[in-house]
Structure formats: C-alpha cells, structure tokens
Automatic annotation (TrEMBL):
Organism per entry: Petrotoga sibirica
Catalytic activity: [GlcNAc-(1->4)-Mur2Ac(oyl-L-Ala-gamma-D-Glu-L-Lys-D-Ala-D-Ala)](n)-di-trans,octa-cis-undecaprenyl diphosphate + beta-D-GlcNAc-(1->4)-Mur2Ac(oyl-L-Ala-gamma-D-Glu-L-Lys-D-Ala-D-Ala)-di-trans,octa-cis-undecaprenyl diphosphate = [GlcNAc-(1->4)-Mur2Ac(oyl-L-Ala-gamma-D-Glu-L-Lys-D-Ala-D-Ala)](n+1)-di-trans,octa-cis-undecaprenyl diphosphate + di-trans,octa-cis-undecaprenyl diphosphate + H(+)
Short name of one Pfam family: Transgly
GO molecular function annotations of the record: carboxypeptidase activity; penicillin binding; peptidoglycan glycosyltransferase activity
Any one GO BP annotation for this protein: regulation of cell shape
One cellular component term from this protein's GO annotations in UniProt: outer membrane-bounded periplasmic space
Identification of the protein by name: peptidoglycan glycosyltransferase
Length: 681
C-alpha cells in the first residue's frame, strides 16, 4: 500500500505539472507560401471530432479499443490477456492498452517498453478519464497518434499519404491508416507500401460481416490498386523553414499545431536556381515582406562579406546633400593616403571625371577622393560615413576605421544591405522586414497578423538628393557596370560591388529591393553576379510585381513645407505621396489623434480626389486598427498602447475586454501584457 500511494502521488503530481492533451509538439506546424500552398508536407493538421468521418471512428474503436466507452481508462481484461502472453514469451510482445493509455503515452511518455512506463500510462490514463470527456480524449487521440514519417494525427496522414482532406478519404484508405498505428515504421507506406496495404487488409478482415462495409471485395480491390501520394518538395525549401522558425522565436510563438502563412512567393522562388556559392534575397521595399531568398539561411542573413563598391551610393548621397552635384568634377589620378596607394580597377587614370561618371562606371580614385571630402578631414569624413551607415541607416557589420571603407571593406550580409538600399526608392524610409504574415491556431482561429511597419526614417537627407541618386543608379544599369542586369520594361536601379572574396549587385525598383552575392576569388561582378541578378529581375517582371521608382516633383516644397493634415487639398494637388506621408507620421501622433486627423483630411478631399481617398481607406484598413477590435494588429503597427488606454474611459465592460485580450497576448507580447496589467483592477 505504501508503494502504491507513493506511486500514486508521484504520478499525480507529474500529471498536474504536465501539459494539456491538446498541446502539440512544437515541431509540428504547417508552413504556407503567400498563395496558401504548403512549403513542406504536413506534419500535423488538427481536425475536430465532428469533422472526422464516423466510419473511421468505428473502425478505429473496433480495432484498438472496442470497450472505449465502457472502461475508465484501463481495460483489465485486455491487460490480463496481454500479461499472460508476455509471460509466456518472456518479453513484452503484446499490449493491452486502451486509447486513453495510448494517448497518455503519446503526450507524456516515451515508446520504451518497461514496467515503469506501463505503470505510469495506467495511472495517467486514470487521471485523464477524470479530467476530460470521452469525446475530448478521442479527439485528442486522433490528432496526436503517430502515423509514421514524422506525422501526427489522421488529418495530416490523409494529406500526406493520399493528398486529401480527412473527410474525403475512402474506406480502404481509412483501414490502411488504422493499420499503421501498430507499426509506423514496419508499415511505412513509402518504404513498404505492400506491407501497409496488407495491414489494411488484416484490419478489413477483422471487421464483422456487414459492419458498415457491405461489399468487402470492392474494398479489397481498392487496397490492391492503392497508390500513395508521393512526397514532393524541394529540399531548398528547408532553408526557408529555418528562417521562419527564427522569426517564430522573435514573435514569441510557442508550442505547435499552428498554420503559419508566410510572405514567400513560391513562383518567384522556384523560378531561380542557385549553386552553393550564390545567395540572394528580395524584399518588398514598401511593406517589408521578404518575398524570397536563395542560398543558405546563414549566408543570406548572418554571413559577413566585404561589399566592395556597393557601398558607394551611401556616401555619394551624403556628398550630394553637402553641396556636390552630378556634374561636379573629381580628380582621377594616382593618389596616396598615408601608406595606402589605391588604384582603379582597370589600372588607368583619366585625369578628371564627373561625379556621375565616377559612380556609373565605379571608378575608385575619384570615389575615394569624394569620400575623404565629406567632412573637414579624411578621418572625420570616415566617421561621418560610418555613423550614417551604422547608426542612421542601421547596417550591422564589421566596420574598418580607415579610408578603405570607401571601397567597401565593410563586412555585412545580403539581408542587411538589402534593407539599407530601401532608403533610395522610399526617400529615406526603411520598412521593418518580416516573413510571417498570419498565424492560425490548430482550430483555425487567426491569432497573429502582421501589418507593414516602419523600422527607420532618415530625417536629414533631402528628397532632391534621393532623386539625384535614383537617376544615377538607373544609369548604372542602363549604361554602367550593371548594364548586364537591365531588363526591358523594368525600372531597375542598382550598383555593383567586388571584393577579394565576393561579388555583389544590389538593385531596386519602385516596389522591391534585391541583392545577389557570389562568393569566390578573382571575381568580376559584371560577369558573375550581375547576369544572375538579371534572372531574378526578369522573374519579378514576369510575375508582374514591380513598379517604377517614384519621382517627386517640387520635392522640398511638397514634402517639407506642406503637411497633408494641415492642407490636404494643396498636398495632393502638388503631387504629394499621401501613403508615404501617412507611413512616415503614423507613430508621431497618439492613435486617437491620428485617426481624427485622417478622417478630417478625408472629408476635405473625398469629392475632389476619390482615387486618393481609396488609397487612404486601404491604408486605414491595414494600419489604423483599433486595439479592442484587432489587438494583434494594433500592437504590430507599433502604436503606443499606454497612451491609447489613458485616452479612453475604462469601465467594467472595458475591463472584461482587457482581461480577455490580456490572456490572448501575454505569451506572445509579454511587454504589452505588462502595460495592460496597469489598467486591470
């Protein structure tokens, strides 16, 4: 009795500190491209009990646990029979487990066949039967039972083995799935299809005559002819999954059983093939959506390679802002900076060139000269360039402390530099990149939705300077070092870069930024990486995703002197970009004030500019979401929750809503949950 009670309370405590039977293994998520197609084959798909064919339930209970609705978690008769058989064979060769015991083993224990494990699953089954209804236990079992090939549950197995939803599978297909339970590896449909079908036949023959199936011969014929749905996925997709999982951690997603819709475009990804030395990434420069990347996740997001001349547009931009012009003459002759005597790539000197020529043809000496004159001394100039890239634009990497920075000895990743180049088509705005757009729980409820967000806004560069740089980088593609990337009818801008161990092309349209990088020695970007970048650019054009880079009219007067909120008609009539304006100011106002300003401006322009009004309404739908209606969207848009809650009257009804939202977000957004705690009483 002492041993029994010790075991009882030990296992009871173990049970109380364990997870729910409905909690899913964190590995088992379903990942989707942006069009809803699966990235990898399904490992887990939750199916409610009322969505499961009743015939499948009958077949399962007949085969695995005929007295399921009569016992209390343990079937003494079946256990006795199994015990006698095991004693006879001097080993554990037969189980007498009920479905409840099998569920307890799946959720809480391992597959080892030991006396300890058997005692634990018996007692755990006893506790389960007192915590859950029979229907809940059956639903949990059918969604968690292991069916081979890293699949849990009948819903995922139907998708993987037959390419069907569970509701649509045939009797023969049901029987095979049930047969797999007793030996997921022995009856693996991909390795041993004949064994799997034969096991289905054994299950069929065990059924009483006229038990649901009236014509067994028809089902036998179907079993004989059965063909399993092939495993079809590109192993390159695994790199996409690694990146998704990294973002899962960033948004605080825990557990499993989720359906995760991503921003990855399948057609774009499949249209480009790379080798082991190449990496690339494409980001929507308006929304921050990462549309695709190629190569290893590490190479794209974490590796650090010198970027070469791809750095030049950033300090050329600073030069234009400081009073230089595209026609400014720069020296092109041998120079020495301390002990460093740089050379042009072609070993020739032209005497002098214009700023425009120096960038278009990526001439080193005039570029170094320009970089050294951004401020009052070469060292001060390097500090200004370094500060601009690292602190203002936000490029993470390894920076040199000398003038070699002008030739791109900064070491960073394709991902970092793709983000940075967003400032050119966006006139100083960098969107926050993301991959996960929506997350649904196992029952299909939307629990997370990402909206575009601004990561950085460059304040001290004029739109005139951006416009001039856009003109120059368009010429790089039309007639300079990047002309092999030019695609007819595509407004592609960009810059090449070559270092000792890599070659780069970073380009952009009005809607995307793309970076391609090839690693290797003695490379020339024009002949290695640029043609490959053209392949990606062509795919963008083919799938109709690209827009032209916006050209501002009277840039300073429009964007700096006129406020859309103060003079909406004048702002629109002079060519102002309303959506760009709203994106740039949305976090400068408290939520309620922002909403009030937008609605006031709408009333003024609604009859004069109905097309602009539609754009604003769409922006409101995506960005101006009220906290109590869409709390996840409100938080993801970056609004100040505390100021919002301070601005409203919190009565008892609001308290109830706050409590519900608090319970929804406390694990995903613990910082925002702490804000809510201040208003709960």
């Amino acid at each position: 009795m002492a041993i029994f009670f010790t075991l009882f309370f030990y296992i009871y405590d173990y049970y109380n500190n364990s997870t729910s039977i409905f909690l899913v293994d964190p590995r088992y998520n379903t990942y989707l491209f942006d069009n809803g197609e699966q990235i990898l084959s399904t490992k887990y798909k939750y199916v409610k009990l009322d969505e499961i064919p009743p015939e499948l339930i009958y077949f399962l209970l007949w085969t695995e646990d005929r007295e399921f609705y009569e016992h209390n978690g343990i079937n003494i008769k079946a256990m006795t029979r199994a015990t006698l058989t095991n004693i006879k064979n001097f080993s554990i060769v037969q189980g007498g487990s009920t479905l409840t015991q099998q569920l307890a083993k799946t959720v809480y224990l391992t597959n080892e066949r030991t006396v300890k494990r058997k005692i634990m699953d018996i007692m755990l089954a006893f506790f389960l039967e007192r915590s859950y209804t029979k229907e809940e236990i059956l639903e949990a079992y059918m969604n968690s039972v292991y069916l081979g090939n890293d699949i849990s549950g009948f819903g995922a197995a139907a998708r993987r083995y037959y390419g069907k939803e569970l509701q649509n599978i045939s009797y023969a297909e049901m029987l095979v799935l049930i047969g797999i339970i007793n030996g997921p590896e022995v009856y693996n449909p991909y390795k041993y299809p004949d064994r799997a079908k034969n096991q289905g036949m054994i299950v069929l023959n065990s059924l009483p005559n006229n038990f649901i199936i009236e014509e067994k011969n028809i089902v036998k014929e179907e079993l004989d002819k059965m063909v399993f749905y092939p495993q079809t996925y590109d192993e390159r997709y695994l790199n996409l999954i690694y990146r998704i999982k990294a973002e899962e951690e960033n948004i605080g997603l825990k557990g499993g059983g989720y359906t995760i819709k991503t921003t990855f475009n399948k057609n774009l990804f499949d249209s480009v093939t790379v080798d082991s030395s190449t990496s690339a990434i494409v980001i929507n420069n308006k929304t921050g959506e990462i549309l695709s990347f190629w190569g290893g996740e590490y190479d794209v997001f974490y590796s650090q390679q010198q970027i070469g001349s791809a750095i030049k547009p950033f300090y050329y931009l600073l030069a234009l802002e400081n009073g230089y012009y595209k026609d400014t003459t720069l020296p092109d002759q041998p120079m020495k900076f301390g002990d460093w005597a740089p050379e042009n790539f072609d070993k020739t000197y032209r005497g002098s060139v214009t700023l425009e020529e120096a960038l278009i043809y990526s001439i080193n000496i005039p570029s170094i000269y320009l970089a050294s004159h951004i401020d009052i001394s070469p060292q001060r100039s390097i500090e200004v360039i370094k500060n601009f890239l690292s602190n203002i634009v936000g490029v993470q990497g390894k920076y040199p402390n000398d003038l070699t920075l002008a030739l791109g000895t900064l070491e960073t990743s394709p991902y970092e530099f793709t983000k940075a180049y967003s400032i050119f088509p966006n006139y100083g705005i960098i969107p926050s990149p993301y991959i996960i757009s929506e997350v649904y729980d196992k029952k299909g409820n939307l629990i997370y939705k990402r909206h575009p967000n601004i990561e950085r806004k460059i304040e001290d560069i004029s739109n005139d300077s951006y416009a001039a740089m856009n003109t120059l980088m368009r010429k790089v593609v039309l007639e300079g070092t990047g002309k092999r990337a030019n695609v007819l009818d595509l407004d592609l801008h960009g810059k090449t870069g070559t270092s000792d161990l890599s070659a780069w092309f970073v380009g952009y349209t009005g809607s995307e930024v793309l970076t391609s990088m090839v690693k290797g020695k003695d490379l020339l970007s024009s002949y290695t990486v640029v043609p490959w970048a053209r392949e990606i650019a062509t795919s963008l054009l083919y799938y109709g995703r690209s827009e032209e880079v916006y050209v501002y009219l009277s840039l300073k007067s429009i964007q700096e002197s006129i406020s859309f909120f103060e003079s909406p008609i004048e702002f629109v009539s002079t060519g102002g970009n309303v959506v760009g304006y709203l994106n740039s100011v949305k976090l400068d106002y408290p939520f309620k004030e922002l909403e009030k300003n937008i609605n006031s401006a709408l009333r003024e322009i609604q009859y004069l500019y109905p097309d602009v009004m539609k754009e604003i309404e769409q922006w409101k739908k995506e960005n101006l979401t009220d906290f109590f209606q869409e709390p996840f969207s409100f938080i993801q848009n970056g609004y100040d929750l505390e100021s919002y809650l301070n601005s409203i009257n919190i009565d008892k009804d609001v308290q109830v809503q706050l409590r519900e939202i608090y319970n929804q977000i406390k694990y995903i957004y613990p910082d925002q949950a702490k804000v809510i705690e201040k208003f709960l009483y």
